[in-house]
Structures are given as structure tokens and as C-alpha cells.
Write a structure and sequence with these properties.
Shape: flat
Low-confidence stretches: 187-193, 471-507
Order of helices and strands: HHHEHHEEEEEEEEEHEEHHHEHHHEEH
Number of helices: 13
Structural class: alpha+beta
Number of strands: 15
Helix content: 40-55%
Largest sheet: 6 strands, antiparallel
Mean pLDDT: 80
Length: 507
């Protein structure tokens, strides 16, 4: 594609920046839910003293349960790439050149980071530049798509590796532009980096030094968006907020009504000397060894403890609703609901597996394009046909070792080839299967050697026991078998020795 004039690209950059600014609040809110910093329930407490407000705020923070994190983290470990095949190399263990790119670029780790962003906020980003493969923050990246869903332009902002500059990356089909400006946000005292606010990257602020456009092979935009709508957390915000609200009510009841209250009535107004008694709370402090001395006529009454189980059941009911809505197994959200049966756990996992497979289908085409562009960047056009690239995903079921072995055994008993059974029913990776094949080959050789050794031993025993006409040493009682009747193993290969044994040992 023809490189557009800088003026046109600059106008496009400002447009993309505006779109990103509008989406940034959503991303920030979803990240807060994921990290356990959800909005506190019932924030209004106006008119109270500072101490009361502080205590109320602390109770609100304690009422937050990080169930949003479980929605994401229950899926993330079940998504991964086993191997990638191309038109050049479609072997089970994947294309060697693509595997080399995966290892050199640390693709699997960066994909995991991008998938976490995708599940949390709905968008995850990877990019290919001259520096290699990068994971980009959704807070600083935006892709513009056409009606067919193809990316037509993208913008990304990040911090340079020397942590002294802000970088702006603008990509269109066939090329990208880079700009650099000084970064005005210092490091923390700990040396950790705090991602600057979006305003720090504004194309309208600072002196940006634009470099010459960099052309890329093909017609791709080398910023890749993994999309899952607005993310799994956003879809279940009402239920998540309701759980936190109910837990807050539970905490309030526990703090104010869960314990027995002691009530005294008919207390005298004056003491024996006629002085008015000034009652205070510290006069009736209780302890396990406390003893109260009460005047005659004073009545004492103790309230019953408030039953918190109805509120607790409401929390559990909402957790069940969240599990059903999000297709997340209940035992993940509520450990006390765990099933003891492997079959029962498998049934609970099915909706989750379907949801993961649906996500994989949505992002597969984007990753195919990424691998194709990576091969083009290496000058390998034969492997760069995205339509011929196949991604072999990790089995999202993640069965136990016992379940995997049982499935493989049943499949092979039914006539399924071992390598196929290992991959499809056992969830083994292509590399694992290749290792099994290698070990099987070695084992076959070892079995052959053992068979030869056993045959050798048997033949020696037979030779010792045979007494044939020939030279005898009567004085020493030793006999020498006739060489014509000996069975000797030739010192050749194990296969030749075994053949000799099967033919009677004749040489």
C-alpha cells in the first residue's frame, strides 16, 4: 500500500487518540475490578464524624470480594498454543521456523498477557516492529476496523526501553511510523515503573520527533487486536456489585447485631446518700471473669444473637447466579461447593470449555496473520500464507493424569493410533508426542537387546549340557562339544543376532 502523506496520518492519529481517550475509563474500571479494587458499596456517608466515616470506609473496603479475578484466571491457564503448522511444514510437532519465532520472541508469555487484557477489558494487543514482538497495554492502544472487521489503522503509545522517552507507534497497511519525545514521569524510589497517564502521550502535547516511515512486507497492520467485546467482567458487573453489597450488609449485621446485648432496667436514680448517680458505659464493662453487683429491684435482660445465615445464603445464591451467567464452574467461585466426582467436575467444566473454545475461534484468524507477518519479516514467503497456517491449541479441558491415561487406553483399544490418541484424547503436545515416539523407539531396541541376551544365555546353557562324540579329557572329566553342534551368536547387530536365533543359531 502507498505511504500516505504525514499530514493525513497526523489527522488520523488525532482521531484514534480521541477514540482511545473515550475507552480508557472502561479499561481502568475493569482493571480495578480484576485487581480487587472494585468501587466500594454504598459510598454515601455524609454528615458523620471523621472517625465514623473512617470506620465506615474500612468496613466498605473489607466487603469487597474479588470474584472478578476468578472469572478471568479460571480461563487463562486453559488457553495456550501447542504448535503451529504451515504450508511448508504441517507435521504434528509444528513448523520448525514458526516454533523458532515463538521461542525467540517469548510469544507464549506475551500472548498470556494479551489474553489477560482481553478477558479483563475486552481488548488485548500484540505488535510486530523492527524491535520484535511486543505486548501493548490496552490503556494506550486502539485499532480502527472497517465493516468487515479488518484493521485499517492503529495507534499505540509505550515507554522506551531506556525509560527516558515516550514512543508513539502509528500503523497502516504496509507501513508504520514512530515518534519519540521526552518522558516527564520519573521512576519510583523502588525503581519500579508507573505507567504514565494517557495525557502524557497526547499527540497534541510535547515535541514529537517523527522518524521515517518503515515499510513492511504485505498489506498488514502490524498491531494485532484480540477482541472479546467489553470483557467477561463487564458482562457480569450487576451480579458482582450485588455480591459485594450483600457482603457489606452481612458485615454491618455482624458488627451491630450478631452478639447478645445486655439491658438493665429500673436502675436507681440516687445513691444511698441522695446523690444523683451518673451512669456511664465503663460502669458495666464485661469480661469472662466480670462480676456485676446490682441494687435490689434492678432487672437484667439479654437479647438473642441475630441469625446471619439468611444473609449468608443470599450471598451464596448470588455466587451461584454468577457461576451460571459466566459459565464458570461453581467449585471455583465457592470451594464449599466442590464436587468429589471426576465426572461431576467434568460436567461443570463443559460450559467453561465451550466459552474458551469460542474465544479461541475469535482470535485464531488474528494470530494466523501475526505468524504470517512474522515469517514475511524473516523473508520466508512460503510460510506466510495465513490461510495455510493452523494453530493447535492446548486442550482446555485439562483432565487429570488418570483421566488422560484412561482416555488414551480406551482409544488405542478401539484401534486409534497411539500418536492420535495421545494428542486428541490425552491432551499431549506435539513435542510430548515426538518424545514418546523417540522413547518408544529406544524401548524397542532395548527389548531386542534383552531378547538377544536371554537367547544367548539359553544357548550357552544348552551347549554346556550337551555331550557329543569328540575329544574327552578323562583325567579332568572335562568334555569338549563337537564344534559342528555348537550354536553360536555372531557378534553383529541385535537384529542379525535375533535372526540367527530364529534360524537355529547357524552361522
Amino acid at each position: 500500500m502507498e505511504i500516505q502523506p504525514f499530514e493525513e496520518d497526523e489527522a488520523y492519529i488525532n482521531y484514534l487518540y480521541g477514540q482511545l481517550s473515550r475507552r480508557r475509563k472502561h479499561i481502568k474500571d475493569m482493571n480495578s475490578w480484576y485487581s480487587g479494587r472494585a468501587p466500594i458499596p454504598l459510598p454515601d456517608n455524609s454528615g458523620s464524624s471523621a472517625d465514623v466515616q473512617r470506620a465506615w470506609h474500612n468496613l466498605q473496603k473489607k466487603a469487597r470480594v474479588n470474584a472478578a479475578c476468578l472469572l478471568v484466571d479460571s480461563r487463562l491457564p486453559r488457553i495456550g498454543v501447542h504448535s503451529v503448522q504451515s504450508a511448508v511444514d504441517a507435521s504434528a510437532d509444528g513448523d520448525d521456523e514458526i516454533e523458532a519465532f515463538i521461542q525467540e520472541s517469548d510469544f507464549k508469555l506475551k500472548l498470556t498477557d494479551a489474553l489477560r487484557d482481553t478477558l479483563t477489558s475486552g481488548k488485548g494487543y500484540l505488535a510486530l516492529t523492527e524491535e520484535g514482538l511486543m505486548h501493548l497495554s490496552p490503556s494506550h492502544t486502539f485499532c480502527d476496523r472497517d465493516a468487515a472487521g479488518n484493521t485499517v489503522a492503529a495507534i499505540a503509545m509505550y515507554v522506551s526501553s531506556d525509560r527516558k522517552h515516550r514512543i508513539m507507534l502509528f500503523a497502516r497497511p504496509g507501513y508504520y511510523r514512530l515518534a519519540k519525545a521526552e518522558l516527564n514521569v520519573p521512576l519510583q524510589a523502588t525503581g519500579e515503573w508507573v505507567c504514565p497517564d494517557l495525557a502524557e502521550f497526547s499527540p497534541l502535547l510535547g515535541e514529537w520527533q517523527w522518524e521515517e516511515p518503515v515499510t513492511v512486507e504485505g498489506e498488514s497492520v502490524t498491531i494485532y487486536e484480540l477482541s472479546d467485546g467489553d470483557g467477561i467482567i463487564y458482562r457480569h458487573l450487576p451480579t458482582l456489585a450485588r455480591i459485594n453489597h450483600t457482603i457489606l450488609q452481612l458485615g454491618i449485621l455482624a458488627a451491630t447485631q450478631a452478639f447478645r446485648k445486655t439491658v438493665l432496667s429500673n436502675l436507681p436514680k440516687y445513691d444511698n446518700a441522695g446523690n444523683e448517680i451518673q451512669y456511664s458505659a465503663d460502669m458495666f464493662e464485661t469480661a469472662p471473669d466480670a462480676l456485676l453487683m446490682l441494687p435490689d429491684g434492678v432487672d437484667i435482660w439479654e437479647s438473642s444473637a441475630t441469625d446471619l445465615n439468611p444473609i449468608r445464603n443470599v450471598v451464596l445464591d448470588n455466587i451461584k447466579i454468577l457461576a451460571a451467567e459466566s459459565k464458570t464452574p461453581l467449585y471455583i467461585l465457592s470451594p464449599e461447593s466442590s464436587t468429589s466426582s471426576a465426572e461431576g467436575a467434568s460436567m461443570q467444566n463443559e460450559p467453561l470449555i465451550f466459552d474458551i473454545e469460542s474465544l479461541e475461534m475469535r482470535i485464531t484468524s488474528t494470530l494466523r496473520r501475526l505468524f504470517a507477518d512474522a515469517m514475511l519479516a524473516r523473508g520466508d514467503s512460503e510460510r506466510a500464507d495465513a490461510t495455510k497456517i493452523n494453530i493447535d491449541w492446548v486442550n482446555p479441558k485439562r483432565p487429570s493424569d488418570v483421566e488422560r491415561m484412561s482416555a488414551v487406553q480406551l482409544a488405542t483399544s478401539a484401534g486409534v493410533p497411539l500418536t492420535v490418541a495421545l494428542r486428541k484424547f490425552g491432551g499431549f503436545s506435539a513435542l510430548d508426542i515426538a518424545e514418546v515416539e523417540r522413547i518408544q523407539g529406544n524401548q524397542a531396541l532395548r527389548d531386542l537387546v534383552v531378547a538377544n541376551a536371554t537367547a544367548q544365555q539359553n544357548l550357552n546353557q544348552q551347549a554346556e549340557q550337551q555331550q557329543t562324540p569328540g575329544t574327552e579329557d578323562t583325567e579332568q572329566g572335562n568334555t569338549e562339544p563337537d564344534p559342528r553342534n555348537r550354536q553360536v551368536l555372531n557378534n553383529t547387530s541385535p537384529e542379525a543376532n535375533l535372526s540367527n536365533q530364529r534360524n537355529g543359531g547357524a552361522i
